[in-house]
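Q: Here's a chain of 253 amino acids. Please give me its 3D structure as tokens.
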Amino acid sequence: MIPVAVQAGLWGLLSGSALLIGALVGWFVPLSRRTIAIVMAFGAGVLISALSFDLMNEAWERGGLAPVSGGFLGGAAVYTIANLWLSRRGAKHRKRAAKELRDEQCRGHPSNAMALALGALLDGIPESIVIGVSLIEGGAVGGVAVAAVFLSNLPEGLSSAAGMKHEGRSATFTFALWGGIALTAGVASFLGYVAFAGLSPAAVATVQALAAGAILAMIVDTMVPEAFEGTHDYAGIIAVAGFLLAFALSKLG
């Protein structure tokens, strides 16, 4: 029997592996911007459903209104401040696929690989922690949550790897960077379980809500703009399809 903490790490590694897969695709396969935007819109819908019906609902049942409200707003605030800081250092368009935006990013910050990496960590760590926390108290990891995080990571690895290739970075550097970040996602899930397993239900609820607030802020700040720019009038219905699929899997599963 695999220890629960190790299970958490493996699930986090699985969701984080989408960054490396996306990077490989972005480096070798010239996908259209519309294709990337469709994945982004669908992934946004899946993520919103997962944090609404799994994450926030479970946090509410554990801790009630006060911890959930404080954590939710706090997570969004922390993410927003960190995202503003990273945007000024070259990671503003880390989930964007348009060549002109990558060009703008490279001109303003000719060596922005570290900012892109930190941006991926900012986006991915709350999601990974959620996966680890979901296993506390004998819970089962949410397949919908893992799928949602996986889908949200794919386009980030794809567009960022394409941007690094445009900067002139080597394939070895790019894949080592994203592979390292994927491993970090697994570590974050492992620590999410180990660090919070002994806390009170209210404290765990706060952590869950904090991660949910950060995830929702990330969706609106980074995923929605790319989804809309690439699909325009179809972004909404694609996101709704993702939401409905995740909702159905959550209820039927």
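Q: Can you summarize the key feature?
A: The chain is about 85% helix and 0% strand.
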